[in-house]
Specification:
The chain has 2 helices and 12 strands; from the N terminus they run H-E-E-E-E-E-E-E-H-E-E-E-E-E. The protein is mainly beta and 187 residues long. The mean pLDDT is 81.
Length: 187
């Protein structure tokens, strides 16, 4: 007979737990209905003084999930390892994309201006590629993260960003060396 009230209480608690899918940590108010997890320091203001501390780990290779844990797509960690080898970009917030760790937040903006002296020596319709290394571009520079602008002398040339750098073709006879400015946004 004692099992029946216990069973009824257990089912009541289980049913109540199943109706509320949101969890709130901090404050006494209801969790935001759009959030699975609602972190808030208090109910009075939206200007808290505390943040979320992600798990701090030392990643050694971008393609290796955390040892002893299942690889969960979308997992966030803060990498404390300064290494920029093995596909990593050093310290920062990374997420697991189901195959590798990807740096989540970028550090900013990079740019460089370069004169293409080799372009001036090209014959008409001759072409060359100004490699990423010509600009001393960071190792993460790519078509997806960079763009360029044309400077003095470029009215004699055509240019297109490519996987190797900036491709330049001479359109008219000139001895001018074109100036290109490369811009990149990334880690």
């Amino acid at each position: 007979m004692k099992k029946v009230p216990f069973l009824m209480l257990f089912l009541l608690v289980l049913g109540a737990a199943g109706t509320n899918a949101q969890v709130r940590i901090g404050g006494d108010g209801e969790p935001n209905k759009a959030a699975v997890l609602d972190l808030n320091a208090d109910d009075a203001t939206d200007d808290g003084t505390k943040g979320l501390a992600l798990p701090r780990v030392s990643l050694t290779d971008a393609t290796i999930a955390l040892p002893g844990t299942p690889a969960v797509k979308g997992m966030l960690v803060y990498n404390t390892n300064t290494s920029t080898s093995n596909g990593l970009s050093g310290i920062g917030i990374y997420y697991w994309d189901d195959t590798r760790w990807v740096l989540l937040l970028t550090k900013g903006f990079w740019s460089a201006s370069v004169s293409c002296t080799a372009c001036a020596a090209l014959p008409v319709n001759g072409a060359t590629t100004m490699l990423w290394s010509t600009f001393a571009a960071p190792p993460w520079a790519s078509v997806a993260t960079c763009w360029y602008s044309e400077g003095d002398g470029m009215h004699y040339y055509q240019s297109v960003i490519s996987t190797a750098g900036v491709w330049v073709r001479k359109l008219y006879t000139t001895g001018d060396a074109p100036f290109l400015r490369l811009y990149c946004w990334g880690p």
